[in-house]
Write a structure and sequence with these properties.
The complex is a heterodimer of chains A (374) and B (209). Chain A is α/β, with parallel strands linked by helices. Chain A contains 16 helices and ten strands. In chain A, the strands form three sheets. Chain A has a six-stranded parallel beta sheet with strand order 5-6-7-8-9-10. Chain A has a two-stranded parallel sheet with strand order 1-2. A two-stranded antiparallel sheet of chain A has the order 3-4. The two termini of chain B are 24 Å apart. The chains are: A alpha/beta (374), B alpha/beta (209). The complex binds cobalamin.
């Protein structure tokens, strides 16, 4: 039998800190976490090409970067899988060592690959069979080969994180709500046109996709040996700023609510990784049980407004802006982080807005880490 | 001027816009007059957006309709409608965000600016070539990635090195590109939205008149 090493002494205190923040209880101090991907490559001088194409290597690089910058309470992700991130937006990813030269961060190549007739095809074929054939034909991605590689990366990352006492904060599964992949595959202009001109057709496809996307989340959870702290729901083009109320309330909210409720039914916190401007519709999220979501914002929605509307219902994570991490002096990062820690209250996790920018200065990351220590 | 056309444009009723254009062309209405009516409708779209009656969904749809209408009228007519001057526009090298850029394109076009759109991930050399060819009043560079601020800076430096900077206004925009970043890249004007560029073109035309 495989013998397990004793847990790292920091692991459980960190986990307790995160759980307290998620439950809106008082942690011993504000937790600080990061979703670091290409930043780690630059930080360590690793190979961007290997990082972008070999999930296990990406896991090693990420965990080495966290080890070299001690003080984080969790890593948001275990590994980096650009091709899959592209696929869940129904777009191709250009990566270093394949389409781009070594050193360049991966880049989405979005174009109109999904046709208007594909809405009907999704209804006829079912979402997952359609998606698998789409990936193969339109993106050149064979999921039956890629998914095992991706899972190996996630497993390697989880193991390395555990060994250094670093909890993993979230589990990404799919595109969260049907709107995200569909708008990526159609491209934004065409997708908006579809909403205006053939809304019933779009909705019919979404209604087929929703239960299958929820089933996928359940299957992945059932497969894991331990429950993740949170499940990642990344929504950007479904933000309030992008859609007028009549569209948002029809094409975003019902789907988002169903997915969030499905995650809650598994006893897991929903990680609302929401890009863009959500201010108008924040109040909708009050209906979820206290402590069952974390609102992860990226500085476009005013974090203090989120606190005012949702602070008594859910944990908030954010939002040191990318330009500040990349260009400002450490003092400014420290002062901003302190302000958040002091004004956001107990249910708060300090983190970069979205991912750690690839060009973040090390001394700025250190300033963030110092801020939680007071 | 056709108020039915302006209204349909403002209400984003594409079918009516296109059939109205056919009708007007059929009865010999000059293209420029038709464009003026469309522009009037687009101005109402902009106003509704500012008043939060419209959101990006409506702005994007208005751009789609305006482009379709433009195709019916032909490039000659739409170019001739660009009375305020020319803008060479693109998203900077290594950045592929284009939703904002496309909005800028249609808002400016609907306010009488001729827009040469170079697309996304545009290398500096392409900006330089387009400036040589089109002699624009301004260049617009869109950038949403902090990692690409350096590319905006070097793009502007290459324009300068090619001897094309004099008399050329350099406009930049994109979510995270603030005043400080604008100074860093060496731009003349940081545009939080498309209307800032429209105002610049209008002021310039006013000064010239
Ligand atoms: C949609 C989106 C995408 C889509 C883009 C689809 C498309 N076709 O454009 C996809 C999924 C492809 C994408 C990919 C990525 N994205 Co992105 N994306 C966004 C998102 C959610 C919205 C951007 C948007 O369209 N806004 C709406 C438009 C209308 O606003 P706008 O572009 O700012 O334009 C307005 C004004 O700024 C101005 N303007 C803009 N340009 C110009 C130019 C001129 C001349 C003028 C006058 C005015 C002007 O006028 C416009 C209209 O008002 C933002 C989040 C955010 N808060 O912005 C992230 C965001 C921009 N993305 C981000 C990142 C990191 C990425 C990726 C690197 C992610 C990844 N790891 O894959 C890739 C990069 C790909 C690449 N190489 O470019 C970050 C950038 C962080 C940073 N500052 O460095 C953001 C801010 C999210 C975040 N906080 O992390 N993304």
């Amino acid at each position: 039998m495989e013998s397990f090493p004793p847990p790292h002494p920091e692991f459980f205190p960190r986990l307790a800190r995160l759980k307290a923040a998620l439950a809106l209880e008082k942690p011993d101090r504000t937790p600080v976490i990061s979703n670091s991907d290409t930043f780690c490559v630059n930080h360590l001088g690793a190979s961007m090409a290997r990082f972008s194409t070999e999930p296990v290597y990406s896991a090693e690089v990420i965990m080495r970067s966290f080890a070299a910058l001690p003080g984080f309470d969790a890593t948001e992700m275990t590994s980096c899988v650009p091709d899959y991130v592209g696929a869940i937006l129904m777009a191709r990813m250009l990566v270093a060592g394949r389409e781009l030269e070594e050193g360049r961060p991966y880049m989405v190549d979005e174009s109109e690959r999904l046709s208007a007739d594909d809405y009907d095809r999704i209804v006829v074929m079912g979402w997952r069979p359609f998606f698998a054939s789409y990936c193969k034909e339109k993106l050149g991605l064979d999921l039956s080969e890629y998914v095992p590689k991706m899972m190996a990366g996630a497993a390697a990352g989880a193991k390395l994180a555990m060994a250094q006492g670093l909890p993993v904060f979230t589990l990404p599964v799919n595109g969260a709500i049907p709107l995200e992949p569909l708008s990526g595959g159609r491209s934004m202009g065409k997708f908006m046109r579809d909403l205006f001109k053939t809304p019933d057709r779009v909705q019919a496809a979404m209604d087929v996709m929703l239960p299958e996307m929820i089933a996928e989340i359940r299957e992945v959870l059932a497969f894991l040996p331990v429950k993740p702290l949170t499940v990642f729901l990344g929504v950007g083009r479904g933000s309030s700023g992008f859609l007028s109320p009549r569209f948002w309330e029809r094409f975003v909210w019902p789907y988002l609510k169903a997915v969030i409720e499905a995650i809650h039914a598994e006893g897991i916190v929903a990680n609302l990784h929401f890009e863009g401007d959500w201010e108008r519709d924040l109040h909708f999220f009050r209906e979820f049980p206290k402590g069952s979501c974390v609102f992860a914002c990226e500085h476009t929605t005013d974090i203090f407004k989120i606190r005012d509307v949702l602070g008594d219902r859910m944990c908030i994570k954010g939002d040191v802006p990318s330009p500040m991490l990349a260009f400002s002096a450490p003092d400014e990062v420290y002062t901003y982080s302190r302000k958040l820690i002091e004004e956001m209250g107990d249910g708060f996790i300090l983190a970069p807005a979205c991912t750690m920018p690839p060009n973040a200065k090390i001394e700025n990351v250190e300033a963030m880490l110092a801020a939680v220590k007071g | 001027m056709s108020s039915a056309l302006s209204e349909a444009m403002a209400d984003l009723n594409e079918d009516v816009v296109l059939s109205e254009i056919d009708r007007l062309l059929g009865n010999g209405t000059p293209s420029l007059e038709i464009i003026a009516a469309l522009q009037e409708g687009m101005a109402i779209v902009g106003k509704r957006f500012e008043e939060k009656d419209y959101y990006l969904s409506e702005l994007i749809m208005s751009a789609e309709i305006f482009n379709e209408a433009g195709k019916k009228l032909g490039t000659e007519a739409t170019d001739a409608a660009g009375t305020l001057g020319t803008l060479v526009l693109g998203t900077v090298h290594q950045d592929v965000h284009d939703i904002g850029k496309n909005i800028v394109r249609s808002v400016l076009a609907s306010h009488g600016v001729k827009v040469i759109d170079l697309g996304v991930d545009v290398p500096a050399t392409k900006f330089v070539e387009a400036i040589r060819e089109h002699r624009p009043a301004a260049v617009g560079i869109s950038c949403l990635l902090t990692t690409c601020f350096g590319n905006v800076k070097s793009c502007i430096e290459e324009i300068e090195a090619a001897g094309l900077r004099d008399g050329l206004k350099i406009l930049v925009g994109g979510g995270p590109l603030d005043e400080a970043a604008g100074r860093y890249v060496g731009a003349d004007l940081v545009c939080k939205d498309a209307m800032i560029a429209v105002d610049w073109f209008k002021t310039r035309a006013g000064a010239a008149a």
